[in-house]
Amino acid sequence: MKKKNTTGKSFRLIYKVTLLSMMSAIIATHTFGQNSMQGDEKMMKKEGSDLMYKAPESPEDISPLLTGETIPMITLKDVSGKDFELHQAVATKPTILVFYRGGWCPYCSKQLAALQELMPELEKMGYQLIAISTDSPEGLQASATEKLLGYTLLSDADLNASKQFGLAFKAPKAYWEMLPKTTGGMDQELLLPVPSVFILDKSGKIHYEYINPDFKQRLSTELLKAVTQTLYKEL
């Protein structure tokens, strides 16, 4: 993953909304800066063939992939515990990729339900919807059953994907007892991802992203619909 040049001493989120047509099709983009990090304070560094990730203590200090970059090749687990090659799935059609914390999070549950309501319209436009969380495959299955979710749920219980996307940070102490249980013991570093939404073309290139360190704030389905309608011709 590329190292990010950072500016400023605080995380900034610039959220711009533009009226694009008489139908009020809206596209939102944002940029942000991260705290400067030097030497061993870099979150990602290359040592031989191994990638070592140093998780920041605060969600405001993550260094995520940016619009225009291509997502890494990652293997996750599906609800059945089988390997799922993310890049192979993305290659089939434009993708809305969602990172959420887990089915135990009420804000995530609300987001998952809203995405389910929007899914038929997204599929009609030609998109597929994939959601990734720290839950174990068993936890994913419980969420899919309870919430009647019809889109793909993937387990990032060890947060390898969250690390490679630059979204992982050290979870607050209040979560330390819970995370080993909900991840099936895989989250040994006690990390969480910053909830995020990426819109990808079939090559895995990021055309839009919404990343907010405040886990209570999620991209609205109305805005997501408007953005996907606007972007699809580019994908």
Automatic annotation (TrEMBL):
Top class in the EC scheme: oxidoreductase
Q: Which reaction does it catalyse?
A: a hydroperoxide + [thioredoxin]-dithiol = an alcohol + [thioredoxin]-disulfide + H2O
Domain (Thioredoxin): residue spans on this chain: 65-233
E.C. code? 1.11.1.24
What are the UniProt keywords, alphabetically? Antioxidant, Disulfide bond, Oxidoreductase, Peroxidase, Redox-active center, Signal
Query: What positions belong to coiled-coil segments?
Result: none
According to the record, the signal peptide region is: 1-28
InterPro entries in the record: AhpC/TSA, Peroxiredoxin_BCP/PrxQ, Thioredoxin-like_sf, Thioredoxin_domain
Q: Name one Pfam family in it.
A: AhpC-TSA
Q: Which family does it belong to?
A: Belongs to the peroxiredoxin family. BCP/PrxQ subfamily.
Function of the molecule? Thiol-specific peroxidase that catalyzes the reduction of hydrogen peroxide and organic hydroperoxides to water and alcohols, respectively. Plays a role in cell protection against oxidative stress by detoxifying peroxides and as sensor of hydrogen peroxide-mediated signaling events.
This protein's name: thioredoxin-dependent peroxiredoxin
